[in-house]
Amino acid sequence: MPNLSRNVKTHKKPVRRGLLLYKTAASPYWHARIWLPAERRYLVRSTKERSRLAAQEAAEEIVSDLQQGKRLDRVPRDRAFEFFAEKTLENDERASGQSLHRLTARNERSILYREPDGVLGYLGRIDVGSVRTPNVRDYLNWVDDHRAKPLSASTKSKHITVIRKVLKTAYEAGAVDSIAPMPKVPRRDNPRDWFDDDEYERLLLAARESAKEGIKVRGVPITMELYYFIVFLVHSFLRPTENEVFALKHRDVRLRDDPKSLQLRVEKPKIKNAILWSDTTAYAPDFYDHLKALHPNYKPTDYVFLPGYPNRTTAKRVFENQFNYLLERAKLGDASGGPKHTVYSLRHTAICKRILHSKGKVNLLNLAKNARTSVAQIERFYSSQLPMDKEMVKNLQTFGD
């Protein structure tokens, strides 16, 4: 009979998964074999104990020391939440400007890596398969604890969306069998701020007077172009952004005779349910003629508003500063004296005025399509907040004959 090696295990005693006690002929002591997940190997240590019970206690102390040193609990890199977050960003950056809006990856990166309370600061080193609903909820609470002002409901929803997207990447890679349901964020709808008829007239009066007086805001004089910018937005439903009204060029405008209106070509964002052409009200063509008269030597490739500013972010900032001056001059602040409206209020005014001035007869589906939004958004943020006038009440009482 061949001689057996003195290192052959002669006694084996499983304690639990990942921890085994054994003896060999080479030593009188029990040894502990401990599985290290992060290193994908076993660690063997002598317990220096002859008694099995004492050896088991010594093995537990070894495990505790490893846990405190983070060797036992360390997650393999290809199982960490951070690993799949990086994969998600890589995929989105490749799709940027094609199937995905160019700002999406940048916004996701900000949410994931923001200091000191980004998603990866809390979930980064966790095994992606262990991320459950309570982990996400705890993360949101952790963020609020680190901030003087808690995140808004909409911002929390964006964080949840990014977390779920990372988990989806892990699911597609086969790293997880399912995606845990995300916690619900309670939301309180805020009605869209808009100018009622009195406020709107005060705003326009302030614009005309400021242009006549040649008021300068940060060195730039207010002209009638700001006035026509205001009325054009209210009659065109455009957003006051770099990729809508400030991206509008003369080649993007064409006149419709029947019914009288302008058709505006709007860049189709990747994240909006947009259409290529948007129609204005019947008043917009007259405002557009006045705008062309302000820049009589315009070319089709020139911008409609502030064509002298190639940087459209700068152009947007110029009108925003001047608009804020008009709000102050017209005393259109809130009860605390702060700003009640923004330039975006003009788009909200456009939608609200169409509902009110049509006496409730405007087709919400057509309005939503033309304004590049949804009927649900209009009902949720606009129409539900508007007063019922006499004509609207009559409209409710019609029998359709």
Written account of the structure:
With 401 residues, this protein is α+β, with helices and mostly antiparallel strands. It folds into 3 domains: 60 residues; 95 residues, Tyrosine recombinase, N-terminal domain (DNA polymerase, domain 1); 197 residues, Intergrase catalytic core (hpI Integrase, Chain A). The protein is built from 14 helices and 9 strands. The strands form 3 sheets. Strands 1-2-3-4 form a 4-stranded antiparallel beta sheet, with helices on one face. The chain has a 3-stranded antiparallel beta sheet with strand order 7-8-9, with no helix packed on it. α2 packs across α6, α7 packs antiparallel against α8 and α7 crosses α10. About 1% of the residues have low confidence.
Task: Please tag this protein with its features.
401 residues; alpha+beta; hpI Integrase, Chain A; four-stranded antiparallel β-sheet; three-stranded antiparallel β-sheet
Widest sheet, order of strands = 1-2-3-4
Using the CA coordinates, give the radius of gyration.
33 Å
Task: Give the termini separation.
Answer: 109 Å
Uncertain parts = 270-275
CATH fold name of the largest domain: hpI Integrase, Chain A
Count of discrete structural domains: 3
Write the layout of secondary structure elements.
Layout: E1 9-16, E2 19-24, E3 31-36, E4 41-46, H1 52-68, H2 81-95, H3 104-113, H4 119-123, H5 133-145, H6 153-172, H7 197-213, E5 216-217, E6 220-221, H8 224-234, E7 253-256, E8 261-265, E9 277-279, H9 284-294, H10 312-329, H11 345-357, H12 364-370, H13 375-381, H14 390-396
Antiparallel strand pairs: 1-2, 2-3, 3-4, 5-6, 7-8, 8-9
Helix pairs in contact: 2-3, 2-6, 7-8, 7-10, 8-9
